[in-house]
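Subject: mismatched residue count in predicted assembly?

I count 680 residues in my input, but I want to confirm that the predicted structure covers every chain. Input:
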Amino acid sequence: MYKYDEYDHAMVAARVAEFSDQVKRRIAGEITEDQFKPLRLMNGLYLQLHAYMLRVAVPYGTLDSRQMRMLAHIARKYDRDYGHFTTRQNIQYNWIKLEDAPAILEDLASVEMHAIQTSGNCIRNISSDQWAGAAADEITDPRPWAELLRQWSSFHPEFSYLPRKFKIAVIAANEDRAAMRLHDIGIQIVEKDGQHGAAFYVGGGMGRTPMIAPLIKDFVPLADMLSYAEACLRVYNRYGRRDNIYKARIKILIHELGADEYRRQVEEEFKHVKSLGIDPPKAEFDRIAKQFAPPPLDASAPDDIDRSDPDFAVWVDQNVAEHKVSGHAIVNISLKPVGGIPGDASSAQIDVMANLGEKYSHDELRVTHAQNIVLPHVRKADLYAVWQALDAAGLATPNLDLISDIIACPGLDYCSLANARSIPVAQKIATRFSDLGRQKELGELKLKISGCINACGHHHAGHIGILGVDRKGTENYQLSLGGSGAEDVSLGTITGPGFDEDGVVDAIERVTDKYLATRTEGERFVDTFRRVGMAPFKEAIYG
Amino acid sequence: MVEHIHSDGEEPAVTLDAFLSQSNATAVRLEPDEDARALIPHLDRLALIEVAFPKFRDGRGYSSARILREAGYVGELRAQGDVLVDQIAYMKRCGFDTFAPEKALNPVDIEAALARWPEHYQSAADGAVPIWKLRHG
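Triage response: the counts match. Full output below for your records.
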């Protein structure tokens, strides 16, 4: 894990001091809410329906147990004893008082954490593969690249008043667990002639105009990566639309210019930027990479698992993944109990996970974009003990990637942008499909719910997606099918007219029944949809 | 040195179009949607480039400033308009050396804002040595 040095500490401390001063001036009335807004946003502080919401950055989703415990402490001390893990691998607190924000940031800084650039029209927290450093299919650990980008993008003087927010994801495996191509910049670390480099996909995104990022450059050497990113951003900062907030993301610029013309402009800018010497030397990458060295895992540890407890065996089959080192496993902790709020965890649960991370996972935890938690490095021999502790804390729901492992935004229960509630819909779907046998029969089925067109719940990328809209003053839910945020990236297609809350649950049941009746051997829901198309599903839904 | 100015008696800055069509002006004003690179052939004869910030949220002027400094412009580079105390540290990093805010700023706040950051993660147009260079010499 990356550890701050004196410079990193000093930068975060300066930011806390700056924001404390800004809050003081706001409370004293020296700056207006309009002037304060971009400042608080760049420190993760939103004004929501009922209170301030604070979004804390978890860079590339990686945490140690001390940091995880601090998240529990903040929930306990400043909020209502819980936090909400988000699709950007962050955590947000829903009931924060403005005057507490500086103290919270100070508490965070004491464990090398912050809320820097978790919102606002700047480069946001860099996301990554939650299995980084553990996945059997990765070519290298993507996090040193992400950390290099984190430092470059932090307090970037030229790119802090962009046309719109800017999200970057970095992966290094062929399986895409980070929805890489649905980011403003998606980077995949690839290998060419024995060297690692960055493939740049630029101009993806969700929101009201979802787009899959085109490949802009197939291989950017490490020595050029920051210059290339700087060129991508400069073209956007200069020419991205500022006349209409809904057309201000980089995807619209690239769509309007065409990928080829955007690439030409970036290449031209890159030639100039490269001459400025802004790329750190390899020694800096090596310094960072050393801190992500694999933990000392014993490859001769026993590789078999005692499956005599049937409940444990069910959980192992669903929530435990292959580790790159024999005798070890990746544990996925579902924050999606039936009837619960997707992504929410109580302070006590956060502490339980922190303790397990410390004791069984080389002091590491991860937050996933699917709003779950990962213990990346667990000995297979310890799995039973981990499962027992999780089960006792209500954290052993064996539903990873099943229909009840729902991504949902906070929706109209919290969010000032939302048109409809997301949480009750998620709860009703999970309850309808609560029978685990039925869920397993349906297999991998990624269901994602957004409470408004901004698509924080990734509905475009759901095998089944739900979008809540406001229709003549009542909540209405549109259903879409066939999206994916993985390496088989695709955007969902709307089925037809929307439904009320119960209607959408019924419609999903008709869709899943149709799938079971139509699939061929081994076909996932999304595969069947791609093979047979919308028509049979439409008929099943609307008759 | 950063000044917080509005000096009297200086030559008024002309628009980019006017500047490009008259050879004797030494001060120009650049709007957010105008290409700073159009000035690159003429930097030698410019004493002042005023970059307009009609709205503080419009960050195009930050790129304009860096482009001009990267092209070797050494004259006065002024941020004019909706320039707020919380933006000036970044503006200075992008190469601005004077500020003409529409609403006067508190000099104490300016000093605090400019003294805030001990170091910087990335190099920009202010000549500051980035943290990675401090780490590796």
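The CA atoms of residues 73 and 405 of chain A lie 26 Å apart. Marking this ticket as 'not a bug'.
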